[in-house]
Amino acid sequence: MATPLKLKELSKKPDLLTHGHRMCAGCGAPIVVKMVLMASEYPLVASNATGCLEVSTCISEYTAWKIPWIHSAFENAAATISGVETMYRAWKKKGKITEKVKFIAFGGDGGTYDIGFQSLSGAMERGHDMVYICYDNGAYMNTGIQRSSATPRGADTTTSPVGSVVLGKIQRRKDLTRIMAAHNIPYVAQASPSHWLDLMKKVRKALDVDGPAFINILSPCNRGWRSKTDDAIALSKLAVETCYWPLYEIENGVTRITFKPKEKKPLEEFLKPQGRFKHMFAPGNEHLLKQLQEDIDMEWERLNKESSTEK
Amino acid sequence: MPKPVAVTGNEAVANALRQVNPDVCAAYPITPQTDMMQRFASFVSNGQVDTEIILVESEHSAMSACIGAAAAGGRVITATSSQGLALMWEMLFIAAGDSLPIIMPVVNRALSAPLNIHGDHSDAMGARDSGWIQLWSENAQEAYDNTIQAFRIGEHPEIRLPVMINMDGFIISHSIETMEYLEDEVVKSFVGEYQDAYPLLDLKKPKSYGPLILPDLYHEYKRLQHEIMGRVKNVVLNVAEEFEKISGRKYGLFETYRLEDAEVALVILGSAAGTAKDVVDAVRDKGIKAGLLKPRLFRPFPYEEVAQALEHLKAVCVMDRADSFGGYGPVFLEVSSALYQNGKGPALINKIYGLGGRDFLPEHAEAVFNELNEIASGGSIKTIKEYIGVRQ
Predict the structure, then answer these.
(1) How far apart are CA A201 and CA A38, in angstroms?
(2) Taking CA atoms, what residue in A is nearest to B62?
């Protein structure tokens, strides 16, 4: 019997990422990871790309992980877990292991969109029974807020700094979720910790799939976003309500928006509390706001056209 | 009883891997290794092994998947060459640092640029400091025998380290030679069942692999790797002794050829040692007291033993099929270190030969022996390091 996705029931489940880890106060990533692990009804084995989550959760001789966990390098969380999963299949075939085990890879946006992109694409194409979770905070936060291909257009980062000539990141962000969907894998989704039930349902679906699945989860970073430490959930909620971060899934090729805001909020509501977008509100920079709003609108429109009617 | 067969080195090693029947193989094609993993893939397709094969999208992912699979707790193989090994470089250190006994034949090939697919030792020499055990082979038989022994060495409970089995690209990998296979059952019982002490797939005892280690413990961790390497020599010798019982073939840390009463000698790795042995015989007929030392275990390097084997000589040339630009050849550096610490030994010179598949001919070896003979007879060393076989 699956644990019902109710707070009362879920609160009885043990934390598989324990307290004592050294993530920053107010970081979205451990919240995301805890939700993911809590959603699972299967025993899990996880891999982790080098990054904030990895360096803060397993510092010798301590570990915050209550499940088997492996980190090997930055660009290969998918390849590494694909090796673990393959050994599991080899042992299953020989009867050396009988339990049904599921495999998860965790990576930040740098380790997933950029340096780990090839490894992720390869693992998805090979069809391993694994779920790749990208916790997307929109920059290389671990090394000190450098732009990644997930960084939104206009954002001020340490390698796309706002200067007198260049005003933050020039390029539009890569739409990784769609790229993963183009792998024609059974399940792809986008989720946000503000919508915990939606997130956990997606994790369950992804784990129930016999084959590869990918979930892109927004993960606020107050250091990089230049926002208040207690704003992670509020900001991820605004990201969804402004359609900056649409919640949707693509199940066996069928796209479904899983949350449609009754009223699409103006993007400014999401951007304003974040210092990384401060310059976009300066007089004369209206075009930056306009351009980002256009990016968001275009994607939301496309998604609506593509999606089947909401259940 | 084993019968002689005529096979290529790639075929011989692929068959060694078939006989071992590992749990997982992750592979990516690269010349001249490709043919080995193609053969192994056909063993998988035809049910001749139980191995699960992962056909990855790069060598970096091949080694990453091997690391995941080996940490999971089973027996794991891959194979590569040249650029593939270079692309794996980051992960080689992690495989060794995580103490994962992955077995990898390396079909040695030159490194770019310029692009060249032929045999030399630059690839493996570039991975010298990665913490892998390195065995080197002269021919298909040795590549086969080294592959089988590598499992026992790497998986030894006191070692638990990855092992590279080196064999020259094309010269060994693609040439047909006569050699003998052991019976499947003999190999199976020789390598035995692998029992990992810390399998990640042991769900009852969750483990974390690959922690961050700060300056408080990193140094000690690396010293431990150094200490473990110190145990390898004995294990290699013990495994060789056991292997001799099943094969009749004798292996050591290195091979010597007519070295005991020699005055001059070559130190030479890989297939070129075969050519050089013929030349030893030929120049002996002309009155030069020649000999040869062929390293087998290059990492860890058996410094004391090599020094003892060479100390009585008058002049030695260390032959390198790889260069460290701006430095001496990698084998020369080791032999020099060994002899310096020994306190006495022969005059030493270094020749770089055979890069990118340039033929190593008997006359090249003969010219070196003539030069050594002059040095041994009181002549001076003209150049310490020099390229030979160069077109004018």
Answers:
(1) 11
(2) A79
Q: Provide the 10 A C-beta neighbour count for residue B281.
A: 11
| Residue B73 with chain A: CB contacts under 8 Å | 87, 91
Q: Is residue B378 over pLDDT 60?
A: yes
Burial of B191 (0-12, 13-18, 19+ CB in 10 A): buried
**Res. B379: pLDDT tops 80:** yes
Alpha helix segments (H runs only) across chain B: 9-20, 34-45, 59-72, 82-97, 122-126, 140-154, 184-191, 218-247, 272-285, 303-310, 330-342, 362-376
pTM, whole model, 2 decimals?
A: 0.98
A55 to chain B nearest CA, in Å?
6
Tell me which CATH code domain B4-247 carries. 3.40.50.970
Whose tokens are 């479904």? That residue is: A256
- Per-residue DSSP letters for B42-64? HHHHTTS---EEEE-SSHHHHHH
According to CATH, the topology of domain B254-387 is Rossmann fold (3.40.50)
pLDDT (tens digit, 9 = 90+) per residue, A45-92?
Answer: 999 999 999 999 999 999 999 999 999 999 999 999 999 999 999 999
Q: What's the pLDDT score for residue A178?
A: 97
Dihedral, B267, B270, B275, B277 alpha carbons, nearest 10: 50
Token pair, residue B150, equals: 């590598």
B134-182 pLDDT, tens per residue? 999 999 999 999 999 999 999 999 999 999 999 999 999 999 999 999 9
Note whether A49 and A77 are within 8 A (CB): yes
pLDDT value at position B111? 98
List, in order of start, the domains of chain A with CATH numbers.
16-306 (3.40.50.970)
Please judge whether A86 and B203 are an interchain contact, meaning their C-beta atoms are less than 8 angstroms apart.
no
| CB of A119 less than 8 A from some CB of B | yes
- Which residue do the tokens 């998986």 mark? B155
